[in-house]
Amino acid sequence: MGDLDASADGSSHEKDDVVLVKAPEGSLSIELVPLREGVARGFLRFSPRNFKLSDESVKELSSALASRSYSTIIVQDSKKRILSRHLARAGWSVERAVPDTLPTKCSSVSPFDLPMEDGLMDANGEKLDMSNTSNMRGISVTVNGRKAWAFYTDDAESARVISEAERRQGMLVASNPEDMFPLADCLVRFLASKRTHWAVFSVDMGRFVRQFSPITMIRMVSDRPKPYDHRCAQVSSANKKALTRLFSEYYDESAMQAMLRLRKYRTDPCYSVFVIDGGFVITKLEGDTGLIYDIYVNPARQGEGLGAELMRCGLTSLVGRVSSVYLHTSYPRAKRLYEKFGFKGVYSQLGIRLDEVALHPPKRV
């Protein structure tokens, strides 16, 4: 699920740090979240799609980001590299945050290629369990002269390495526990080289992928939603043009693709789409459960309370139709809002966005 505001990925901070540039040609916001000394993750929002900032606006953006004293800002750029292109004009350097070059040779394998040897263990140091592995694919690598294996499950644009028994979708296998670290590193780089968008790991594997600054992805649930007053409107012929523009910038796709997406949601009875001036919310019915599927606020309208208004609308639309509502979030700022509406976290996973870029400010002379 997309969040109404970009915010933190697990780090605690008292004040949200948002760089916002509003100009006649468009608006752009980047929320900065400290990860470690000198490094932050930025969450980007922009409107309209593929706009071009003036030299004056680029200078304003560059100065604001450089004033934070980060040597590296990790961010998911747009498909047209809107942020990278603008900051390059101001002297910033850009590189992939996750390298797509492999540190060691690896070969594609399936779980059936694993040797049934005593001493093979999983990432938790337990004896290897081969149940529910038929849908997995993986790689084998040689680490310190020993073979090691990493397996994952393809899930649309994601590769999932989940160890929990009820959601098992991957595993790391080695004979020496120290081999798990270079094995996980090789797997992430391998997936990046395949142009996979996400690598998702269970929390217990976090120590093996810490160097990639994973995002904490939280599933939140609220029982028995209640109705609220709101001023959002369901999608109609009167507002579909404005909604198409919002879709285009949020999903970073052409107007035609946005129109087709909206048509899909309008013709599927499981989805409901609501719009307000500056944002939208989509809900989905899944049997007796509701999902806050997507929620978005235009960056130029952030801080006006539209996110809460959209949440009131989304929850009200599900009242009397479901017994509980869930959503996914990666941002503590949004998480704080959801908690005000009765949502509670039920489990977390770690996501690595494999096509993020690392931005470095110009060197001071």
Protein architecture, described:
- This protein has 365 residues and is of the alpha+beta class.
- The chain folds into 3 domains: 89 residues, Aminopeptidase, CATH 3.40.630; 104 residues; 132 residues, Gcn5-related N-acetyltransferase (GNAT) (Aminopeptidase), CATH 3.40.630.
- Helix content is 22%, strand content 34%.
- The chain contains 7 helices and 19 strands.
- The radius of gyration is 22 Å and the shape is globular.
Rg, Cα atoms, Å: 22 Å
* CATH-level-4 superfamily name of the largest domain: Gcn5-related N-acetyltransferase (GNAT)
From the 3D coordinates, which CATH architecture of the largest domain would you assign? 3-Layer(aba) Sandwich
Overall geometry: globular
CATH class of the largest domain: Alpha Beta
Please give the number of β-strands. 19
Overall tally of domains: 3
Low-confidence runs: 1-14
CATH fold group of the largest domain: Aminopeptidase
Structural class: alpha+beta
- How many helices? The count is 7
Biggest sheet character: 13 strands, mixed
Question: What's the order of the H and E elements?
Answer: EEEHEHEEEEEEHEEEHHEEEHEHEE
Distance between the termini: 43 Å
Roughly what percent helix?
Answer: 10-25%
